[in-house]
Design brief:
Blueprint: H1 4-10, H2 13-39, H3 41-49, E1 54-62, E2 64-85, E3 90-95, E4 102-103, E5 108-112, H4 117-144, H5 149-174, E6 177-179, E7 184-189, E8 196-197, E9 202-219, E10 231-236, E11 241-249, E12 259-266, E13 278-293, E14 298-300, E15 306-312, E16 316-321, E17 323-328, E18 331-335, E19 340-346, E20 357-361, H6 362-365
Parallel strand pairs: 1-20
Antiparallel strand pairs: 1-19, 2-9, 2-13, 3-5, 3-8, 4-7, 5-6, 7-9, 9-12, 10-11, 10-13, 11-12, 13-18, 14-15, 15-16, 17-18
Domain Multidrug resistance protein MdtA-like barrel-sandwich hybrid: 80-208
Protein name: Efflux RND transporter periplasmic adaptor subunit
Domain CusB-like beta-barrel: 215-283
């Protein structure tokens, strides 16, 4: 038998025959396809108009109890602050405290010169004894009918005046010593030994740092959800944390800001915490069942409502409106989604509510 190459070279009509047969078979297949299209013209239309289903990545989320809270900002301040003043005139005889010193209620702080107040008091006390004897004698004579009612009244008035004089001099003598009105710290000392003070001249400033107080403002949307006695989580500017309690909330909003003033009380028995420091206050409003998702999973519906796109029965997309419970640096807590939900985490921007999709689990997508 001759090789194929030699056979084709001797009989070239074989090549032409093969080409003709190939063209005929191709034309025959096209005609068959056209006939099928003519018999069912909608088949080609359906094939060309039906888009392929989109693939999305889905992850299962389980709700957990989550505290809904608001965070406010304020500054620590003393619970009480008082500027002490001289109640009698005199020269500063002795300073018994230093600036920044802790003092207790009733502790002597400054002593003024008593001058002749002790002698005046002794004289007034002697006069009081005379008035008491005169009044007793007048009352005895009145009882015997030997003296009139007017004389008795005059003796009684003189006695009362003598008692008032003694009491005034006793108070003046006591006021030569300036004492602390409450436990606190001497913030400012405004006098030196030898200074002369008139009545009402400032002497020192004392502050009470136990407890500390943080003032803040609450939005009108949240004021109905807070109440006195609520616990507060406090974070100070240095990162230290402590607990506090809501002790006051305003009943009338600030007309300029439409916010309500509140006060948080922080125990500070050792007065270690200072006043005037910045602080953040977290008030827990309630506890809700929520899931934690990345902000990239959020979507908007056609009406502009914020929500997430979930996967329901038959692999259908369902848009679920949500509310934000809490925002953290690594995610957002959302409620309103039920106990368990399948959230579309990748591809949610390319599918619409009600569309069918091909789900791929988060673990399989990695």
């Amino acid at each position: 038998m001759l090789p194929l190459k030699q056979l084709l070279s001797r009989k070239p009509w074989i090549i032409s025959l093969c080409v003709v047969l190939g063209i005929g078979l191709w034309l025959l297949s096209g005609q068959t396809s056209d006939d099928a299209t003519k018999q069912d013209p909608s088949a080609a239309t359906r094939q060309s108009s039906t888009p392929p289903l989109a693939k999305v990545v889905v992850e299962q989320f389980q709700t957990s109890p989550t505290q809904k809270a608001i965070t406010l900002y304020g500054r620590t301040a003393p619970d009480r602050e008082a500027t002490l003043a001289a109640e009698v005139a005199g020269t500063v005889e002795q300073l018994q405290i230093r600036k920044g010193q802790r003092v207790t209620k009733g502790q002597p702080l400054i002593r003024l010169d008593k001058a002749d107040r002790e002698l005046q008091l002794k004289r007034a006390q002697a006069l009081l004894r005379v008035r008491e004897k005169e009044f007793n004698a007048s009352r005895s004579l009145r009882a015997k009918g030997l003296q009139g009612e007017v004389a008795l009244s005059q003796a009684e008035a003189a006695l009362i005046e003598a008692k008032a004089t003694v009491r005034n001099l006793e108070l003046a003598l006591e006021d030569t010593v300036v004492t602390a009105p409450f436990d606190g710290i001497i913030e400012n000392l405004l006098v030196e030994q030898g200074d002369y003070l008139g009545v009402g001249d400032p002497v020192a400033t004392i502050v009470d740092l136990n407890p500390l107080v943080i003032g803040a403002d609450v939005n009108e949307r949240h004021i109905q959800q807070i109440q006195r006695g609520m616990d507060a989580n406090i974070t100070l500017v240095d990162g230290a944390t402590t607990k506090g309690e809501l002790r006051y909330q305003a009943s009338v909003a600030d007309p300029q800001t439409n916010t309500f003033a509140i006060e948080i009380e922080i125990p500070n028995p050792d007065m270690r915490l200072n006043a005037g420091a910045s602080a953040s206050v977290e008030l827990v409003l309630d506890t809700r069942e929520a899931i934690k998702v990345s902000p990239s999973m959020l979507a908007l519906d056609e009406a502009g409502n914020l929500g997430i796109k979930t996967l329901v029965k038959d692999n259908k997309v369902s848009f679920v409106p949500i509310s934000i419970v809490k925002v953290e640096p690594d995610g957002i807590w959302l409620d309103g989604v039920g106990k368990q939900v399948s959230v579309i985490t990748v591809g949610q921007g390319f599918v619409r509510d009600g569309e069918n999709v091909i789900p791929v689990q988060q673990a399989e997508a990695k």
